[in-house]
Fold this protein.
Amino acid sequence: MAEKVRVSTMMPPGHVRTPAYLRGKTGEIERTLGPFSNPEQLAYGLEAEKLPVHRVRFTMAEVWGAEAENPADTIDAEIYAHWLKPAET
Amino acid sequence: MGGNDAGAIVPDDHDFALWEKRVDALQVITSTKGYFTVDGLRRVLEDMGEEAHETMSYYERWVVSVNQNLIEAGAYSLAELGAKMDEVKARGETYGDCAVNELSNPCAGDDDNG
């Protein structure tokens, strides 16, 4: 069974790759990629640590709530590991 | 931008001006040389805020970002940048003026292709 994860709700100023509309949303890890250098350090010319990047699958119902036109459709987003926490099921 | 309504998409194709091609080339050359990465380019573009996206063109924003990243990386100093800007400005307002001035005063202030 796929691991459920929740995206952090933090909103730090500056360069991050985590889409704002997915923050606080829960999805399933579809696969794990990387490791890739952390863009939040690369963006400032800093030495960047290598992190796993998870491809997380969200349902439209989760992302858009009652407004979702096709609630069972899904969207995949690749999110750096430090933005994800295991979700309570 | 950022999930806000941005109006209709303009599908027109357009040619790029010479200076725009040069900005693109500058980004490729300087990032290939290791001064910064695409992450740094995006970071400065994002930090400019919404107003810059409404008032500046795509490559106007790019040249600001490339410059900011090169300053931070130590590629040149602000004083060097200021002196170079004055030198380029003195060549004339248009590419035509610059060419005429170059002909009447060859190699003046031009240390890279004279």
In short: Chain B has two domains: 17-75, 78-114.
